[in-house]
């Protein structure tokens, strides 16, 4: 946690080029409560599909009808579920999109990566190096290189803070 998975996904999702490319976009925060009905309903609400039912088959058919032939981007943020059958059930109505449709999943669990990686590769975000951490910290603290070298006390305190953040951008 804290390495920037959600932040990177949000940056992509909200980018003007991405918004122009896709007919439909949906963002669903999944977390550890992976209920196929609940997540399907959340996707349906995002794409403005009829969702006033608790019948998964009807809900998935409505979602399929809404997405058929359209290029979509669906982000499933913070997926923890490792159950392959649940995953297959969830994506069943999402197989109808136009060529180029994407499902972007953020997770910190390797098994989830292998489960959802059906078409394209994955990107693993790692912690930042000490130099990169210092650069981010100094930038956000409004410390120019000249200021930090002029005041060694500030630099010493800043570098101690950076060390405690252990390479996590969110902590910085």
UniProtKB/TrEMBL annotation:
- Residue limits of the NB-ARC domain? 1-142
Q: Name one Pfam family in it.
A: NB-ARC
Single GO molecular-function term?
Answer: ADP binding
InterPro entries per record: Apaf_helical (IPR042197), NB-ARC (IPR002182), P-loop_NTPase (IPR027417)
Q: Where are the transmembrane segments?
A: none
Signal peptide positions (record): none
- UniProt record, GO biological process: defense response
Keywords in UniProt for this one? Plant defense
Q: What is this protein called?
A: NBS-LRR type disease resistance protein
Q: Which organism is it from?
A: Cicer arietinum
């Amino acid at each position: 946690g804290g390495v920037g998975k959600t932040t990177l996904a949000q940056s992509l999702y909200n980018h003007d080029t991405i918004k122009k490319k896709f007919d439909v976009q949906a963002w669903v925060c999944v977390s550890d409560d992976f209920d196929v009905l609940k997540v399907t309903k959340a996707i349906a609400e995002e794409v403005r599909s009829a969702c006033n039912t608790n019948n998964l088959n009807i809900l998935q058919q409505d979602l399929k009808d809404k997405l058929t032939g359209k290029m979509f981007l669906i982000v499933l943020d913070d997926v923890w579920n490792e159950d392959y059958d649940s995953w297959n059930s969830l994506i069943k109505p999402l197989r109808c999109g136009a060529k180029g449709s994407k499902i972007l999943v953020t997770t910190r669990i390797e098994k989830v990566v292998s489960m959802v990686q059906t078409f394209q590769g994955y990107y693993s975000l790692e912690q930042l190096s000490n130099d990169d951490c210092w650069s981010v910290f100094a930038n956000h603290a409004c410390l120019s290189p000249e200021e930090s070298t002029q005041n060694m006390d500030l630099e010493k305190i800043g570098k101690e803070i950076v060390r405690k953040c252990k390479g996590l951008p969110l902590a910085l």
